[in-house]
Structure formats: structure tokens, C-alpha cells
Amino acid sequence: MSVVSRSALESSSLADLHEIASELDLDGYRRLRKANLVAAIIERQGGDADEAEGAADDEPAGDAEPAGDAEAAGDAEAAVDVAAAADAESAVDADAEKPARRSRRGGRGRSRARDRDPGDIEVEEEDSADADAEPRPSARSARSSRGGRDDGDRVSSEERVAAGVIELLPSGSGFLRVAPPHPSDDDVYISAAQVRRCELVAGDEVSGPFRAPRRSERYPSLIRVDTINGRSADEVAEGTKYDDLPCTYATERIALDSEDPTLKAIEWLTPFGRGSRVVIVGAARAGKTEALRRLAGVLSGRDDLECSVVLAGVRPEEIADWKTDALQPVAELGLAASADAQGQAVERAVETGRRVAARGGHAVLLVDTLEYVPAPLARRALAAARNIVDGGSLTVIATAREALGGETTVIALDAAFAGTGRIPALDLAASGTVRPELLVGEKGAAAIAEARAAAIG
């Protein structure tokens, strides 16, 4: 590189000076102010070029070029050097701006990621800083490289398999508890879509590969379900649909074994069994909710039944009462909740019960109340109850002001009896069970008929 005069250096921009200093291998030049940088460059060049030119003027000219020509040549050479430095600096600035733009885009992506569901966030990996030193690949090759990286992640994730027990959340998603029943940091998140697709229910033993948590995620996520209760998930999914499963009338009575007068009357005068559709009807203050709470109390202690309670459109005080019982509600919607919200809560609980029955288990769903749920949803919830032939069962016990139609057992309560303290407040004339002989035998059915006749007469 030719020697540049002090005047040329002082008239140059700081970017040009940085380029010159870089070519001279001047250490720490970016930390120097402009005047100090000019002095450092002159010192590295071996002295002040202006003084050198003055000394040259005092020597004999000899074959030297005329002073004017030499000065013009020096100015031209300096101009070339400055232009080259400016081009190099603009290229450096452009390269430096690329990662900054990517960093800003990455920041916005992370902000959007924080707004998404923590279980389902998938944030794309940012390019490494080393990529800036290499030519940028085409869009097709970039997609190919990302696809290869994803495949590698998938293979490594599949090498890690989690096994545990399902715990469902009200939102429909859930967790695979690896050390049930206690939560731990090693639990694996299961999306609501996987729960629906595999028809998972609380208590299912599930295994499958999982991936590590991504940015903004707390828990690892299940990639797929391999086994359910020791059977292949594909085998379970290919089973017959619930609505197509053959069913029959309830034949196994659910014993209450209680000394409570209301429960004893229900057990022997309006019996119900596994797969029954039961509605407790009556006017306001007839004691429907209290009867349902007593039923929940005795049924929740049964090891052979999976019981759950849904509160839809009840009084706030009743929600507080239910929370003190052994069987805690899976959904609590008071009077202020919309009819659609109440219907959705009931449908979610019914869906869980259907899955239990389809797997061969026996579920009991208690609903207080179907009175304010939209009629189509209320009938669909009641219709889900059934006794599956050579399989499980779903029993639905709900309260309502009037019978909905399709019940196999109606338990009618009399508000006048309840108001005057007559217990049990059972209205035998309005109560009844379809095919009671299947539950209590012929003699038991005859005794129920006699009791009803006496009540009517």
C-alpha cells in the first residue's frame, strides 16, 4: 500500500481510516479517536508524508518527475485507495447488518412464541452466527437443511421413551405422570389432540417417545402414543366406535348399602344398575341436589366404579357444598354461566365416561343439573349411558325439573314431602324403573309394583 499524506488522512472518513489501519495490521485501531488514528497510521507508515515530500523538494531534481506531476500522481493514488476502502467498508457494513436483521426477526418470533400455548409451541431454530461467514443457501437448500435437522431431532427424541399414568386437565390436554400420583419435573405433556385421537382417559397407562422442551416450554412433549394399558395404540384405535357397540338393559344393580332412608328407598323402589340412565326430577326445593350428593357419597367409595361430578348452572352455595364432599367436581359452572358453556362442560365429562366404558371399565357420571343445558345436548348426554355387551358401562345420574325422555330410571321427589320433613320424599307414583326384574328379580319387581299401587291407592 502506498504512503498516504497527513492531509489526505485528515480529510478521509473514519470508515476509510479503519480500512487503512486494517491493511496496516494496526492493533486496537477501532478504539482510537480520529486524530490519534491518523497519527498512528502515519507512524506505522514511517513518518509524515508531507514532511517527506518537503525534504524531496530540497534535493536535486535529476531524473525525478516534476513536482506538479508527482503531486497529481500521489493524489490520484490516494483517491484510488480511499475509494477501495469505502467499497470494502460498505461491504462490511452490509454483512454486519444481516445478523442484526435476523436477530430482530428472531426477537419478534420469540415474543409471538410466548403468546402461544406452552404445550404446543414450536419455535424454529435460528441460524448460527457462523452462517454469516458463508454464502447464503437458496430457499430450496435452506428448507432441505432444516428438514434434515428436524429428522435428526426426531430420531434422537424417539430414543427416549416415557411411560406413566394419564392425568387429564379441564382443557382436554393432560400429563403423563411418570411417578404417579405425584407430579414431577419429568412428567410429559400430552396435547388435547392426542388425547382425543387415542381416546385417552384418566388412569390409562401409556408409553411412547417424547422430545425435549423447546423454547418457552416447561415440560417435554409426547411425540406419539405407542401403547395404552399394555396394548398397541393402533389396536385400541381400530376398535368399534362407541355408538356402534352392542348394548343391553342394565342387569347388574348398583348396591348403595346405606342406612340413609332416602338412599334405601331409591335402592329398593327405584333401582338402577350399570349402564342405567337415571334422572332425579322434582320441583324447586324438592331435594334433588341433596339426593344426588348422597348418591355421590356412597358411589365414590366403590373401587369398581370410576365416578365423576359435573356442576352446571347450580347455586354458588351448592358449589361450595360440593367442594366439601369426598368426590370433587371436575367442572363447576354456576347460574351465571351460559347454556353453551354448561353444555360443553357436560359433554367433556360424558366423553371421558364413554372412553372408560369403551375400554371395559365402569363409569358413573353425576350431573347437577341438566335443567339449563340446551335440550339436544342434555338428551345426548343422557343417551351416552349404556351397558355394553361383554364390556364396560357408563351410568348417568342427573337432576332436572322434568324427565327428558329415554330414562331407564326416574326418581321423582315431592317438594311438599320435603318441605314438611317427610323423609324419604320419594313420589312413588311418578317414579319407576324400566325392566326392574333384571335388577332385583321377579319377586323384587312384584314388591315394587305393590308399593306403587299402595301409594297411588
Structure at a glance:
The chain is 44% helix and 16% strand. By secondary structure, the protein is α/β, with parallel strands linked by helices.
What features would you describe in this structure?
The protein is an alpha/beta fold. Helices cover 44% and strands 16% of the residues. It folds into 3 domains: 92 residues, no CATH class; 96 residues, OB fold (Dihydrolipoamide Acetyltransferase, E2P) (Beta Barrel), CATH 2.40.50; 210 residues, Rossmann fold. Strands 8, 9, 10, 11, 12, 13, 14, 15 and 16 form a 9-stranded mixed β-sheet that branches. Strands 1, 2, 3, 4, 5, 6 and 7 form a 7-stranded antiparallel β-sheet that branches.
**Low-confidence stretches at least 5 residues in length (pLDDT < 50)?**
51-158
Approximate helicity band: 40-55%
CATH class of the largest domain: Alpha Beta
Strand content: 15-25%
The shape is: elongated
* Radius of gyration (Å): 41 Å
Find the CATH superfamily of the largest domain: P-loop containing nucleotide triphosphate hydrolases
Give the N-to-C terminal Cα separation: 123 Å
What profile does the largest beta sheet have?
9 strands, mixed
- By helix and strand content, what is the structural category? alpha/beta
State the domain count.
Answer: 3
Tally of DSSP β-strands: 16
Number of alpha- plus pi-helical segments: 15
CATH fold naming of the largest domain: Rossmann fold
CATH A-level architecture of the largest domain: 3-Layer(aba) Sandwich
Average pLDDT metric: 78
